[in-house]
Amino acid sequence: MNRYELKKLVSQKLKLVRVEAGFTQEQMSHMIGISKKTLVQIEKGRLVTGWTAVVAVCALFSESQVLNSALDGNPLEVVNRAAVD
Among 21, 27, 56, 64, which one is most buried in terms of CB atoms within 10 A? Predict the structure, then answer.
C-alpha cells in the first residue's frame, strides 16, 4: 500500500475511528492537528487526509479495531512501509 492509498483508506475510516474512540469532532481534530472544518470535510468524503494527520491517526489509534481490520494488521507497520514507497 502506497501513501496515497493509505491516505484514502484512513480518510474513509476516520469517522468510524473517531466514534469507536468516543471523541467529538472537536476533540479528534485537536488530537490529530487539523481544524474541525477540515475534519468535517474529510468525514463527508470531500477531502483526503494529509500525510501528517494519517501518521497521527495511526499512532494515536494503533489499537483501533477499525484500523487494524481495514489495514490487516498494525497501523504503524503499514505507515512505515508506505513511508518508504
Answer: 64
